[in-house]
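Deliverable D5.2: sample structural annotation.
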Amino acid sequence: MTNFSRSWKHDQVFISFRGKPLRKNFVSHLKEELKRSKINFFIDEDETRGRRIATLFETIRESGVALILLSNKYSDSEWCLDELVEIKKQMETGYLDAFPVFYEVKSASIKSQTGCLHSDQRH
């Protein structure tokens, strides 16, 4: 079970994802449910383009949970991959719990690194 009583700084969910379709569909519903449940969360949608990624890393370090929404475009973004590296570092310190969510992606295609992440791809 996840321990959510760490400190006030770690009472936030960091959501990592890529793509407008995901933002308009799944993420918009997720945001509304988190708000309704009074759960603090961070999505970089309000971040200024070109802003230093170190600022984003601070936000990851201030979070207790990370949701990584893996879609077929996630790994196309160096920014997302950098976030993923920082999330992994924080997991190793024990200050962050991370949960991958496969959005229209077959987890087996990632596990075996077969290349294409489209859920309709036949292997």
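Annotation notes: Confidence is low (pLDDT under 50) at residues 1-8, 117-123. Helices lie at 20-36, 53-61, 78-93, 107-111.
The annotation will be released with the project's public dataset once the embargo ends.
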